[in-house]
Amino acid sequence: MRMHLTSAAAALLLLAGVGAVAAQDVVITPEQDTVVHEYVKKKPLASVKLPGVELNVGTALPDTVELQEVPKVKYRVVVIDNRTVLVDPSTRKIVKVYD
After folding, report:
1. Does residue 43 lie in a domain region?
2. Are 39 and 72 in contact (CB under 8 A)?
3. Residue 2: inside a domain, yes or no?
4. How far apart are CA 96 and CA 56, in angstroms?
5. Contacts of residue 96, Cβ cutoff 8 Å, sequence gap at least 6
């Protein structure tokens, strides 16, 4: 009986871990990409310098970086080192870097 409980507990933890990883995946639709591109074209943003910060998905930006709201997209945008970056405003983590 104890073996069954241990196996069940391990399976439950494994499934919970898989769910947590899946929840972290960010899906940006082609329509959202188009909205972001059009927004940046119409409202060019000044580029911000952030020495020592790597522009990678998952990198959290400091609170000093001002994020701009994009209509119809839940994420915010900022231009860092002349690269447009999409950021989750709740975590301030980068979800996409545009080249």
Report:
1. yes
2. no
3. no
4. 8
5. 26, 28, 57, 75, 85, 86
- Is the residue at 42 inside a domain? yes
pLDDT (tens digit per residue) in 39-87: 999 999 999 999 999 999 999 999 999 999 999 899 999 999 999 999 9
- CA-CA distance, 8 to 2, in Å (whole number)? 10
Question: What is the extent of the structural domain holding 85?
Answer: 27-97
* 69, 35 contact by CB (below 8 A): no
Tally of structural domains, the chain: 1
For residue 62, is it within any domain?
Answer: yes
List pLDDT tens digits, range 25-37.
788 999 999 999 9
